[in-house]
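Notes from the 1:1 (GR / supervisor)

We went over the backlog. Supervisor wanted to see one worked example end to end before approving the batch request, so GR pasted a single chain during the call. The sequence is below; no edits were made to it. Supervisor asked that the structure be written out right there so they could see what the output format looks like.
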Amino acid sequence: MAKDNKAADPQSTKASAAKSSKTANGKTQKASPETRAKRSKTIAAKAASAKASKQASETKGLADLFEHALADMYYAEKKIYKSLPKMIKAANHPDLVEALTQHREETAGQIEGLEAIFVLLGKRAKAEKCDAIDGILEESESLLEDFGGTAAGDAAIIFSCQAVEHYEITRYGSMSAFADALGMDEAKAHLETILDQESAADSKLSELAEDTINDAATEYDEDESEHA
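Structure output shown during the call:
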């Protein structure tokens, strides 16, 4: 039978090369001095790069964090301002409609207050995408789709709005403390005004929910139970 004179398979060649790099007992041979030196340079370069990155991050201070938070909340307030009309339209109780309408007007003023802080920093007003508020507002949209127009619709709106208010309260509380630590008294005054408005809006929503809106939704549940 004639011998096969075909060229060697590239994969077989690679396999043979891999085998030749091992000793008879199957252990990988020690890397050559040249290979070891090359590896050493590569590792040293990576370490230097990591150290440089760490040093760069350590140069950021509270002023940088304050500016980041400012851009974050500027984005959030503008998104909230755009989302409130839909909630106002979906609300049924007149006191809830009034509370949301009033807070939208306050939100417009809050946006101006944040812009004034940018001016104090000598910066152009710039919004930075806030994933947290996007998530909260996305959930609000979903709740309106599920509960809008039902007996629990107003309760669902308050449920959503208070999630927004609580997020804002925590953020503005921190930012006010940052401004205080940085000696930015005028910026702190703007933030305290906004914080007071957010806290008042949250309290108003709680009052509406506890005094009338939750009870109205509960009465519907009781009626359904009686007719079951």
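Supervisor's comment: The chain has seven helices and no strands.
Batch request approved.
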